[in-house]
Amino acid sequence: MPLALLALAVGAFGIGTTEFVMMGLLPDVADDLHISLPTAGHLVSAYALGVVIGAPLLAAVTARMSRRTVLIGLMALFVVGNVLSALAPGQESLLAARFLSGLPHGAFFGVGAVVATTMAAPERRARSVSLMFLGLTFANVAGVPAATLAGQHFGWRATFLGVSVIGLAAIASLALLIPPDHTHAPATGLRGELAALRSVPVWLALGTTVAGFGALFAAYSYVTPMLTDAAGFAESGVTLLLALFGVGATVGNLLGGRLADHATRGTLFGGLASLVLVLALFPVLMRAEWSAALAVALLGTAAFVTGSPLQLMVMEKAASAPSLASSANQAAFNLANAGGAWIGGLALAAGFGVTSPAVAGAALAVLGLGVAGVAYAVDRRRGLPAAREHLVASHVPDQQESVRP
Fold first, then answer.
1. H-helix or E-strand containing 50?
2. Residue 183: predicted pLDDT
3. Residue ranges per domain, the chain?
4. Where are the alpha helices (DSSP H) in 350-390?
């Protein structure tokens, strides 16, 4: 494994920790700032909004810059946002700081995915992307629980200062381990990057991300009441089960990267089909503690198997603008977060039962399969060669390739 991937994983670990830790610190933040829990929940939305806006915007405006420089700059912005979060005197300033912290999130993963693929052999490019995302999934296993525990004992502000230190470590790692001569951006510029987003296959790939990961968040957003009300777990045991989800996500991420190097589209279809099955079985699996624990782990595995193939396919479809398209895929992931949670909430509000969000998620996963099927049909109609159907990851363009119209 190139050491540069370790630098990307360190940055991903810090970003993943700061994104999800707020959910565990909401009661502490609400008490300290004298606001209600629903009001404190806006801090989660502020971060997600920053991701959605910052992902395509920052990728586009930095299109002509060295990708190494861009990654270091994005992590510097991440550190500033977290320091300001720790020092925020009130709700409004904390909202602004959380928005600022979210801005570099999508662009870092988008540009980082392109850098990861340029440093790997053609047959290992999907695996390289999955190793970068390993930092994000591992954040759910260790980073978020540790940061939540630290916040509960030393105050929530200490958590964000600690995450800032991780960001500084990532900056040092990026500067030391990523060779400058491998990260020059293509000469397409802002206009070329934006033009690549007019491609129908790119939008179909992004639509698959929204539907597929919307399926995950429809269920995961309400997994705590499922575990307590349906499976019978005590609230104190939920944290350990959420870490089990992180383990499943880590396994799925690594498995998806390995499989996608051999059959990218087949891995995507297999992951989405597995997600449909797991979510459809949730009402049954949530009837006992052992099967509910298994369901949580399988949910993480099935969902994150699709991560690497989706990232690679978006980049391949936007051959002249892989950084922008890859960053837009991260914005799509966060739209899936918000949209999936909303749809799962509708199922609960309609009185269909505590496990109904998972059934709604299964329907979204079916929709994701349908969008992926349409994308496959479009590629076939356009005469995509069979070899690229089976090894899309081998043709993520680097900066020396010519740009196709």
1. helix 42-61
2. 52
3. 1-185, 190-389
4. 356-381, 386-390
- What are the two backbone dihedrals, phi and then psi, of residue 198, each rounded to the nearest 5 degrees? -80, -5
In contact, 299 and 216? CB cutoff 8 Å: yes
Confidence of residue 195 (pLDDT cuts 50, 70, 90): low
Amino acid of residue 219: A
Percent of the chain with pLDDT over 70: 88
pLDDT of the residue at 105? 92
SS3 helix, strand, coil % of the chain, rounded to 5? 85, 0, 15
Q: Any idea what DSSP says for residue 352?
A: -
DSSP 8-state secondary structure symbol assigned to residue 350: T
Q: Could you report the per-residue pLDDT of 248-281, keeping only the tens digit for each?
A: 999 999 999 889 888 889 999 999 999 999 999 9
CA 156 to chain centre: 24
Residues 6+ apart with CB under 8 A from 61: 190
Dihedral of alpha carbons 351, 354, 356, 357, sign: positive
Write out pLDDT tens, residues 87-144.
999 999 999 999 999 999 988 988 888 888 887 777 777 888 888 888 888 887 888 8
Which tokens hold the place of 16? 């993943």
pLDDT for res 365: 96
Domain 1-185 has CATH 1.20.1250.20: yes
Whole-number Å distance between alpha carbons of 373 and 377: 6
Reported as a pLDDT band with limits 50, 70 and 90, residue 383 is: low
How far apart are the C-alpha atoms of 344 and 13, rounded to whole Å?
A: 28
> Which has the closest alpha carbon to 264: 93, 124, 104?
124
Residue bearing tokens 């190097």: 261
**CA quadruple 314, 22, 45, 208: dihedral, nearest 10:** 20
Terminal Cα-to-Cα distance of the chain (whole angstroms) = 34
Tens digit of pLDDT for each residue in 351-366?
Answer: 999 999 999 999 999 9
Structure letter (DSSP) for residue 41: T
Say yes or no: do domains 1-185 and 190-389 share a fold. Answer: yes
Instruction: Give me the phi and psi of 62, to 5 degrees please.
Output: -105, 20
> CA torsion angle for 296, 300, 303, 305 (degrees, to 10)?
-140
What fold is seen in the domain 190-389? Growth Hormone; Chain: A; (1.20.1250)
282 close to 295: Cβ distance less than 8 angstroms: yes
